[in-house]
Amino acid sequence: MKIDTEYIKLDSFLKAVNAASSGGEAKIMISEGMVKVNGQVDTRRGRKLYRGDLVETTGQTFAVE
Questions:
Q1: pTM of the model
Q2: CA distances from 35 to 4, 5, 23, 56 (A)
Q3: In terms of Cα–Cα distance, which of 51, 38, 52, 55 is closest to 3?
Q4: What residues does 48 pair with on adjacent strands?
Q5: What's domain 8-63's superfamily in CATH?
């Protein structure tokens, strides 16, 4: 997904790529360890993602561009 800002927060990114249908669902996915950022589980929903980061969840990988 292409971003127009310096960064995007992890929970917002999950909603933007339709990996989560709501902020609440994104929060649960993150807190339960279902999301990896650059290959490592990250439980911080406010994690800042920058261009080049890779997000993995539910068998899918999304790139921040």
A1: 0.93
A2: 23, 22, 14, 6
A3: 51
A4: 9
A5: RNA-binding S4 domain (3.10.290.10)
